[in-house]
Amino acid sequence: MINALNAADPAGADWFKSSYSGGEGNCVTVADLRATQYEGIAVRDSKVEDGPALILSPTAFSALIGYARTAV
Predict the structure, then answer these.
(1) How many CB atoms neighbour CB 51 within 10 A?
(2) What local confidence, expressed as pLDDT, does residue 59 receive?
């Protein structure tokens, strides 16, 4: 499942930035929406807080993180 929505839409989303994020400004923030109607993990550009967010299924998000760890 991959969906997109405006990041302001998921009411009550608790957005956070990874502790691994550096200070270069190339960061994303994520929100756990598994317990909501979206049933996934939302990802957005940290510089565009009211912009679009990508919602991934937990499986797809896990695959993305796994790839990111090996691509560094």
Answers:
(1) 11
(2) 92
Is the pLDDT reported for residue 10 higher than 90? no
Residue showing tokens 């998000």: 61
Q: What is the pLDDT of residues 39-64, one digit of tens each?
A: 889 988 888 878 888 889 999 999 98
What region, left, alpha or beta, does residue 18 occupy, with left being phi > 0 and alpha being psi -120 to 50 degrees?
A: beta
| Cα-trace Rg, the chain | 12
HEC readout, 11-35: CCCCCEECCCCCCCCCCEEEEEECC
Distances (CA, A) of 12 to 1, 9, 36: 21, 9, 10
